[in-house]
Amino acid sequence: MPSFALKVTRSALSLIAAVSPKLAGRLAFALFCRTPPRKPKGEKARAVHSAGETYLATAEKISLSISNGMAMTYRFNGGGRSNGRRYLVVHGWGSGIAYISQLVRGLAETGAEVVALDLPGHGRSSGRSLNIRMAVEAIAAAERQFGPFDAAIGHSFGGASLMIAAGGVLACVPPVMPKRLVLISAPSEMTWLFKGYGKMMRLSPGVEERLELEALAATGKRPRDFDAIRVLGAYQRPVLVLHAEDDKEVSASHARRYASGGRHVTLEWANGLGHRRIVSAPQTIARIIGFVADSERTLAA
Q1: Mean pLDDT of all residues in 214-241
Q2: pTM score
Q3: Dihedral of the CA atoms 242, 179, 225, 137 (nearest 10)?
């Protein structure tokens, strides 16, 4: 059953659309990009977040300047203390590095320099909104600050953002092409999000079109342009896709789409771990560590 807040929002957008579809589309896009409250909900989330914050307190914190504000990064084994490898970690929508600190810790314990990025509107980064352009800009800012990455690991929206960054989809942001990519429970394209949002908000076709135009104005691209399959053709470097077939937030069909992108893509199922538990599961972390460390592997001829 829809919440009271959702019912009110639907009604408000419908009333505004009757007067101005353009304004309704603008408001719908603003709501679409609005990030959830940072405060963890529930005892389990509070415990995970608290443990993550405790671990991140040991990191070197470096803020990055981006066009819409500031993005916070947490660096481990920096300043020449690493084994020579450098990894980037990016969280998903409504999350934050504190929530996936076990993955960060596992990578840092290998001796690599690990840079963990709080996306705009999340964690200790500024703002209350996020879109794909903002995420890609933050990823590019991390590379400018720290240098090229041997591997980048992203969960959910963070994984999709890394893929878009690697493909140089946005003309205003230079490509960020790590030697390897790990995509955990990541969407392979963005049209499903817009369609699902339009359905949830009961937007009219006219307002849905205005919503897409707002996305175009904000990012320079329509939702259909953010398709990882197009990117994979140009990014001929090893990609590991980890997904659970029981994922209820990002369908397993996205993982299968990634797998169809070429022989450089490896799909492995982590069934039973859903959408969120997968990122901190010991077996997931062990697999990622093995994959990113195997830099000498060559693609099959």
Answers
A1: 94
A2: 0.95
A3: 110
